[in-house]
Design goal:
This protein is α/β, with parallel strands linked by helices. 52% of the residues lie in helices and 13% in strands. Among the domains are: 97 residues, Orthogonal Bundle (MutS, DNA mismatch repair protein, Chain A, domain 3); 206 residues, P-loop containing nucleotide triphosphate hydrolases (Rossmann fold, 3-Layer(aba) Sandwich). A 6-stranded mixed sheet has the order 9-10-11-7-12-13, with helices on both faces.
């Protein structure tokens, strides 16, 4: 049991870390506001079954579930025959009542079989009627309690009337700060000036910041004593109910554990459906294929995102190109889509054209791990994270700025070998880099998808769009100038950089432009081909209609 708890805790900590690394913490917090009670986002069990239930629930309107606290501690106490408080009992009653409501909703399969299969015992159903909507024992079910409630209301009216008369009496007028009844320490009091004891006998309850006195007049002391006695009698009756109901709960302890679990399950479903409706999000069921195909995906952390459309059906994606051009966000978008679909969390995309594979684990090597405290350099920290990957299988890993912290030529050879070895373990990689050396080493590999972040030469800004099958230029000088580095400094840096390397970048840039031009032409041809096919279908339909008309005309003449 302890080992299982540690495993669950470890998963929750790792989940929290990946959520933060992918900038999904705000998204997850927003989703959790739709839950009836707080819980991890992961759902245990068959994901295909969960998906069918969620899709079925999305087709109907259902009542909002009641907010209920975690009841694990209360269930453990019921096993020990403890007496629960009224609030604790009402939390269970809220769940019983909600499932009763669900039985009246017009569900379709598979929901209808599930909900109708939850049969609440008659003894438990009877308990629902004991309570008001506010969670109190319904006095109309108990004559003694009803009598006490009426007596309490009358006594409170008497207290209020007595205080009102005192607050408007002439003998107390000169000492009153105001004529209101003030609640202080749970008591109804009057606020008076010093010397009030010349006009009224009272007990001082507290002093105000202005030096005045909150007093409890002795003329209502007997009424307060009566109220206390009535409240005590009411509490005795409530305790008796709590004792009786707790004993019944002990009898049905296994059912309570079951209904608690089913409430959590339905809560998972309804929160996802309600969240998707509120945000106009879509659900994507992970496929068995190890591929990611996004169409018009929008990362929830970006306020006005450029929709991402990307196809990743190889083992390694290598993203190069312009600085601050969206390479890291592309990496986070791809991993976020995997994370959200893994836990059936909805997101913005074209669901009809989106496909996301299932991976056992999601890893993100994004942050700079350098630590003075732990005496770890940037590169050493990266090596620690890569070393952990050799113990994993069937994972998808995002690595941002893979060349961080060491010599680029040495790192290119090292990472080439490590990536080759790790993908043999079924690990897929999405890597961003400025390594021309690494990109050139891996460009000829059929299992490597090259992606270039594109730059608008005319406007001198990134487009936040991407071109598959190409290596991109970093545009470091242009980026530096865009962010305020003086033009003279940039020109001098270009001279130091050298013409040969600049020529290499120009060749890369021309390759990217050529690829982009080819893609535009291909898209244009595809559109023209679709138009021709549409015309062809139209002509075939017209031909069929004319043949039908001719056949009918001939048949008419023959008759």
């Amino acid at each position: 049991m302890i080992r299982e708890c540690k495993h669950v805790l470890s998963l929750q900590i790792n989940e929290k870390t990946i959520i933060q690394k992918l900038d999904l913490d705000g998204y997850v917090k927003q989703f959790q506001t739709f839950l009836a009670r707080q819980k991890p986002v992961a759902m245990m069990g068959d994901i295909n079954q969960h998906y069918r239930y969620i899709k079925a629930l999305g087709k109907v309107q259902f009542p909002t579930p009641y907010s209920v606290p975690n009841l694990d501690r209360e269930l453990a106490r019921i096993k020990k025959q403890a007496i629960l408080s009224l609030d604790e009992i009402y939390a269970f009653v809220s769940m019983f009542s909600y499932f009763n409501k669900l039985s009246a909703v017009g569900f379709t399969e598979p929901l209808i079989s599930w909900i109708q299969g939850i049969e609440i015992p008659d003894e438990i159903v009877d308990i629902i009627g004991y309570f008001t909507q506010e969670g109190d024992i319904n006095p109309e079910r108990d004559p003694e309690l009803y009598k006490l409630e009426r007596a309490l209301k009358q006594n409170r009216r008497d207290i209020k009337d007595t205080l009102y008369k005192l607050a408007h009496s002439s003998k107390l007028r000169d000492y009153l700060v105001d004529t209101q009844v003030h609640f202080n320490g749970g008591e109804e009091t009057l606020l008076v000036r010093g010397g009030f004891n010349n006009a009224i006998k009272a007990t001082v309850v507290a002093r105000s910041p202005g030096g005045f006195f909150y007093i409890l007049p002795q003329s209502i002391a007997h009424l307060k004593e009566k109220e206390s006695a009535l409240v005590s009698s009411k509490e005795e009756i409530v305790y008796r109910y709590c004792k009786e109901i707790s004993a019944l709960f002990f009898k049905w302890e296994r059912f309570l554990a079951f209904i608690n679990k089913e409430y959590d399950r339905f809560d998972h479903y309804q929160a996802r459906v309600s969240f998707a409706r509120a945000m106009e999000y879509e659900f994507i069921l992970p496929s068995k294929e190890k591929r990611i195909k996004l169409h018009d995906f929008e990362h929830p952390a970006i306020e006005k995102p450029v929709p991402v459309s990307m196809n990743f059906d190889k083992q390694i994606m290598l993203v190069t190109g312009v600085n601050a051009g969206g390479k890291t966000m592309l990496l986070k978008s791809m991993l976020s889509a995997v994370y959200m679909s893994k836990y059936l969390l909805p997101f913005k995309c074209d669901a009809s054209k989106t496909e996301v594979g299932h991976y056992k684990s999601i890893e993100a090597v994004i942050d700079d791990p350098q630590s003075v405290k732990n005496d770890i350099s940037t590169f050493a920290g990266r090596m620690q994270e890569f070393a952990k990957l050799f113990n994993k299988e069937d994972a998808i890993v995002g690595v941002d700025e893979i060349e961080l912290g060491t010599d680029s030529d040495e790192a290119a050879s090292l990472f080439r070998v490590m990536l080759d070895e790790l993908r043999k373990k079924g690990i897929s990689f999405i890597v961003t880099t400025h390594h021309k050396r690494l990109a050139s080493l891996m460009a000829s590999d059929d299992e490597v998808e090259l992606v270039a972040a594109l730059y608008d030469e005319e406007r001198r800004v990134p487009t936040y769009t991407f071109l598959q099958g190409s290596i991109g230029k970093s545009y470091a000088f242009e980026t530096a100038q865009r962010y305020g580095v003086p033009v003279g400094i940039v020109k001098q840096a270009k001279k130091v950089y050298g013409e040969d390397k600049e020529n290499l970048n120009e060749l890369i840039e021309k390759s990217t432009s050529l690829e982009r031009e080819m893609r535009m032409k291909i898209n244009k041809i595809d559109e023209e081909l679709k138009a021709v096919e549409a015309k062809k279908r139209k002509l075939e339909e017209d031909e069929f209609k004319l043949q039908e008309q001719h056949r009918k005309a001939v048949a008419t003449l023959e008759n």
